[in-house]
């Protein structure tokens, strides 16, 4: 059995890991830590919530601590994150894992004043965790020097590209030194990520522990067919009936998230919204209230589908079916964490049936249907049946293509 001790991590890191209650590494940690310790570039693919953060932080801290820089502390490691929430969470993880090490870090992101961040940078840090915009901004102002950076970590790379940060990443790669260890971690591995990886990873070790289509077995999935105007009513009904202790509701738009919160609050359900239009302070306040149990429902856009590690989420609601099938997997991954069970309920209207069918093809299973509820929408249900049948027929035709013998050619040859 692989243990943290057998991976060769230093005693202070092992002590910190043990203090956190971790006994054995997760699959991505077991496969990813060793090549990082050996100084190799790594291309890692694993779903959110599988321990990717520790997979790159622990070996990176081990190597940095073996060569301390004293008081001067130039930036020796850069971790790039797509969202403020994920950046803050990586910073919290670093603080826990490095509490017995002489390493300093800071986290910088946009949406807040830069004063305190600049002060932290001036004191000197070994590890910088940042979002692309604020990083390039402060670098342009002369507050960040990356000439001595030894490690570059690109976390949640697929989400980074989805959010349009590809140009920022390319600008950053020109600033970073060529001689460094590069680590890229992503929940999915589309061609765009492979192409990006090829531009800066040198003979990387590929580490993959789960396919992008897999879903957590502990999660009970359901779909309910409902007209769009009735979705808010159905959501409130379920929250009352099931007495859900902690729920995350995913909407497609920011305004949609706000409208859902307003409706729930009218029904005395404590809720808060988190999305890109909210200030950083408002987003952190909502998250802290949710973690503390002061509100029971967090309504979010996909900005919260990754990087928010809350082990106590009992229910996830796909208020709107996502256009990107992979987003569904990441959304429902917010529940069923740390070995706990969880429930994921999707609301599907008549226009969303094609997206639902795409999700079922991705996860290779039919999501159980709940037809007995007050707002069951028969047209959506009927359209989904047609969609499934047509999809199955197309799949069967595709699989049979090329298998039938070409009798015409045979006859011509015989002639």
Q: What topology emerges from the helices and strands here?
A:
Blueprint: H1 11-19, H2 27-37, E1 42-45, H3 52-65, E2 77-80, H4 84-97, E3 105-108, H5 115-123, E4 127-130, H6 132-140, E5 151-154, H7 157-162, H8 166-175, E6 181-186, H9 191-200, E7 205-208, E8 219-225, H10 231-242, E9 247-250, H11 254-266, E10 271-274, H12 280-292, E11 297-300, E12 315-318, H13 325-332, E13 342-348, H14 353-363, H15 378-400, H16 407-414
Parallel strand pairs: 1-6, 1-7, 2-4, 2-5, 3-4, 5-6, 8-13, 9-11, 9-12, 10-11, 12-13
Question: How would you describe what is shown here?
Answer:
This protein is α/β, with parallel strands linked by helices. Helix content is 43%, strand content 14%. The chain contains 16 helices and 13 strands. It has helices at 11-19, 27-37, 52-65, 84-97, 115-123, 132-140, 157-162, 166-175, 191-200, 231-242, 254-266, 280-292, 325-332, 353-363, 378-400, 407-414; strands at 42-45, 77-80, 105-108, 127-130, 151-154, 181-186, 205-208, 219-225, 247-250, 271-274, 297-300, 315-318, 342-348. Strands 3-4-2-5-6-1-7 form a 7-stranded parallel β-sheet, sandwiched between helices. Strands 8-13-12-9-11-10 form a 6-stranded parallel β-sheet, sandwiched between helices. Helix 5 links the parallel strand 3 (105-108) and strand 4. Helix 14 crosses helix 15. Mean pLDDT is 88; it is low at 409-415.
């Amino acid at each position: 059995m692989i243990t943290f001790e057998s991976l060769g991590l230093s005693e202070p890191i092992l002590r910190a890991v043990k203090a956190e209650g971790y006994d054995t590494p997760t699959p991505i940690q077991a496969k990813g830590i060793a090549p990082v310790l050996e100084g190799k570039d790594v291309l890692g693919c694993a779903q959110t919530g599988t321990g990717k953060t520790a997979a790159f932080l622990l070996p990176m801290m081990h190597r940095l601590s073996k060569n301390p820089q004293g008081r001067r502390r130039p930036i020796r490691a850069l971790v790039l994150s797509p969202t403020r929430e994920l950046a803050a969470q990586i910073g919290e993880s670093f603080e826990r894992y490095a509490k017995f090490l002489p390493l300093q870090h800071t986290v910088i992101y946009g949406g807040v004043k830069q004063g305190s961040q600049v002060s932290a940078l001036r004191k000197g840090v070994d590890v910088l965790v940042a979002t692309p915009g604020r990083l390039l901004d402060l670098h342009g102002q002369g507050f960040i020097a990356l000439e001595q950076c030894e490690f570059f970590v690109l976390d949640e790379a697929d989400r980074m590209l989805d959010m349009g940060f590809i140009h920022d990443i390319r600008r950053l790669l020109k600033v970073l030194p060529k001689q460094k260890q590069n680590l890229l971690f992503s929940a999915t591995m589309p061609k765009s990520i492979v192409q990006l990886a090829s531009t800066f990873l040198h003979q990387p070790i590929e580490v993959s522990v789960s396919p992008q289509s897999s879903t957590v077995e502990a999660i009970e999935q359901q779909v309910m067919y409902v007209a769009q105007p009735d979705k808010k009513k159905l959501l409130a009904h379920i929250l009352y009936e099931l007495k859900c202790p902690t729920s995350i509701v995913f909407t497609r738009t920011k305004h949609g998230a706000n409208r859902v919160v307003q409706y729930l609050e009218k029904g005395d359900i404590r809720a808060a919204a988190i999305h890109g239009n909210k200030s950083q302070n408002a987003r952190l306040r909502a998250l802290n209230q949710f973690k503390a149990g002061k509100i029971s429902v967090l309504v979010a856009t996909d900005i919260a589908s990754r990087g928010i590690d809350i082990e106590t989420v009992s229910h996830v609601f796909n208020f709107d079916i996502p256009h990107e099938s992979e987003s569904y997997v990441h959304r429902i991954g917010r529940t069923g964490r740390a070995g706990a069970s969880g429930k994921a309920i999707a609301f599907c209207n008549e226009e969303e049936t094609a997206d639902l069918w795409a999700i079922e093809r991705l996860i290779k299973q039919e999501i159980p249907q709940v037809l007995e509820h007050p707002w069951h929408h028969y047209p959506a249900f009927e359209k989904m049946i047609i969609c499934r049948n047509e999809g199955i027929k197309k799949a069967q035709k595709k699989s049979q293509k090329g298998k039938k013998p070409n009798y015409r050619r045979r006859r011509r040859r015989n002639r």
